[in-house]
Amino acid sequence: METLHELQLENREYFMSAGGQTYDVVPCLNDDEDFIKVLKNLAVAPADQHALR
């Protein structure tokens, strides 16, 4: 598992040295309380309640 240090500094250096122009680190979705609530609701709701409409 990468640490924030590796993602923000080391991997950015690798990316930029390989010709990359823009490097952003996106926060993990599973670190957001609202996202976890949605996952919980999907897991406990009957399947027909969360079908795409």
Descriptive account of the structure:
The chain is mainly alpha-helical. 49% of the residues lie in helices and 0% in strands. It is built from 2 helices and no strands. It has helices spanning 4-17, 33-44. It is elongated. The mean pLDDT is 81.
Q: Topology, please?
A:
Layout: H1 4-17, H2 33-44
Supply the number of helical segments: 2
The oligomeric state of the chains shown is: single chain
Overall, the morphology is elongated
* Residue share in helix: 40-55%
Q: Which structural class best describes the helix and strand composition?
A: mainly alpha
The averaged pLDDT comes out at 81
- Radius of gyration equals 18 Å
Distance between the termini: 36 Å
Q: Hey, roughly how much beta strand do the residues contain?
A: under 5%
Strand/helix succession: HH
Main sheet: strands, sense, barrel = none
Outline the low-pLDDT stretches. none
Strand count: 0
